[in-house]
Amino acid sequence: MFKRFVTLFLISTSAQGYGQKALQLTVSNNGDARKSSIISFPYKQSAGKAQLQLVDRVSKAIYPVQVLPGGEAVSIIDIDAGEKKVLSLAKAKKAQATITAIKSQTDYSVMLAGKQVLGFQTGQAPLPDGVAPVYRRGGYVHPVLSPGGLQITDDYPSDHKHHHGVWAAWTKTSFRGNKPDFWNVDDNTGAVLFEGIDHIQSGPVLALLSAKNSYIDKTSIPHTKVLDEDFTVRVFNLTGSDKPYYLFDVELRQECATSDPLKLLHHIYGGIAFRGNGEWNGTGNANFLTSVGKDRETGNATAADWIRVSGNVAGQETGITILSHPENFRAPQPLRIHPKEPYISFAPSQAGEFVIEPGKPYIARYRFIVYDGDADIRFIDRMWRDYSKPLEVKTTMGEDQD
Residue 252: which of 239, 268, 270 has the closest Cα? Predict the structure, then answer.
């Protein structure tokens, strides 16, 4: 079970009205200065229609708060190196700008300041010409756009029609003696089906989409659901200060749908994956850089905390950096980097077979940072430290609100 971003103490309280005790957060930064650092804390009270904020009574800084399903609240703060902030939860006194998830007939779009950050596909859009129905897929992220409006991802590429923006699947598997392949769907042994959106939320801190996917063994009669997958996307209300960027998180939660386990066999790819813009196709058209300084030629089948994939789109350099959470299974996870195509996968099965057992969900988290221009190692390292070593947050009861 993953620990949350921060170690917290749950205190049932309320931020409603005057004369009540305010929930107080003490945020400690024992490392470098943090800019736009994401924190979370337990908050089981319903926010209703009231918008909430954290108030720094020393600097008077205000940080919007968003309450999520399951009793979690999230905010984004700045804090100096070595600083300790004391923040009080209160009602927001004015309307807050939001990041918005919008539904259409065929998909969802996340909009920030009038621009699309990404889309989420449900499998309802018409298939591209020449793509057979067996390839139809939903429950994944596409397109991903850069702050400059450049498209980062591809979908149903002609060389690998089963590649889809940011998606997840397993390849070599064993279930009840069968060998369903949920990745190479053209062999018709397995499929990943989009079942629907479990939750959608817009707000001042993030837009959230939580989808239900099912992994189907098509070799059994009747077809059998093997895994239930929650594919959750959090897109944060961030545009960057020093550097324009977008940031979103993906969390996979996979649970056995029967009383039988799913064995993941040793293989070079499978898990979370990314397919880049079609202009990056070909040996010399995409750049790869891992956290240990390896490129396309040297990085395949090596482990890394993060990888950046980039290239030119319409003559401009742009790219995406993918961070693999340090608590992921077999972290740092091995990478599959394709020698010719703009595709990568964080593939724990490279390190040997493993099993997803009933009652023991497989959980994996990844952070995606999108920005235009060349790779910026100092920026990526700062973002990695923020993700891998979150700020320490404790909650207490504060003074009466005034």
Answer: 270
The reported pLDDT for the residue numbered 124 is 96
CA distance 79 to 62: 12
Query: Following CA atoms 254, 304, 369, 156 in sequence, which dihedral angle do they give, to the nearest 10 degrees?
Result: -60
Cα 175 to the center of its chain, rounded Å: 28
For the sheet with 206-217, list strands across it: 190-201, 206-217, 224-236, 246-256, 362-372, 316-324, 306-313, 287-290
State CA 224 to chain mean position distance: 28
Q: pLDDT digits over 275-316, tens only?
A: 999 999 999 999 999 999 999 999 999 999 999 999 999 999
What span, in angstroms and rounded, lies between the C-alpha atoms of 200 and 100?
10
* 127 Rama class: left (phi>0) / alpha (psi -120 to 50) / beta: beta
Question: Which pair of tokens denotes residue 261?
Answer: 């386990």
Cβ atoms of residues 37 and 386 within 8 Å: yes
Q: Averaged over 102-109, what is the pLDDT?
A: 96
Q: What is the DSSP string of 33-62?
A: -EEEEEEEEE--S--TT--EEEEETTT--E
For residue 231, what pLDDT band results from cuts at 50, 70 and 90?
very high
CB 90 within 8 A of CB 56: no
DSSP 174: E
d(CA 361, CA 157): 31
> CA of 288: how far to CAs of 25, 157, 280, 296, in Å?
40, 19, 11, 5
Token pair of 146 as six digits:
């850069």
Token pair for residue 260? 């039988």
Residue 180: strand, helix, or coil: coil
**Percentages helix, strand, coil for the chain, rounded to the nearest 5?**
5, 50, 45
Which residues, in sequence order, are bridge partners of residue 370? 246, 320
Report residue 9 as tokens. Answer: 């103490």
Q: Decide: 205 and 236 in contact? Cβ < 8 Å.
A: yes
Task: Give the model's pLDDT for residue 188.
Answer: 97
Q: Taking a C-beta distance cutoff of 8 angstroms, is the pair 152, 119 a contact? A: no
- Give 249's strand partners: 234, 367
Model pTM above 0.90: yes
All structural domains of the chain, each given as residue ranges with its CATH number in brackets, are 21-96+390-400 (2.60.40), 100-388 (2.70.98)
